[in-house]
Amino acid sequence: MKKMMNLYESCKTPIRVAYFGFICVAIGFLIQNESVNVFYTFRSSIILFIAELFLKIGELTIMNLPLIFMLNIVCKKANNASPVVLALV
Known about the structure:
This protein is mainly α. It has one domain. Helices cover about 80% and strands about 0% of the residues. α3 runs antiparallel to α4. It is elongated, with a radius of gyration of 18 Å.
């Protein structure tokens, strides 16, 4: 039971980050895609820019998810700064 709690504690933050990334990608995609917006199409350049921003933030978050997962595990296991720097390198 203790191993399951350890695994859950290690994976809780990366799962939240992945959820945030997928939500950002979904919002950006839904606003930009004209096939989804059958009843109303956004033509405002500000709204389209914000949708593109959501899409890029979500993609960046999802692409860096393994790095976030690794840094989360290293930070929990080591209280020293040198293993964190070595994990980044």
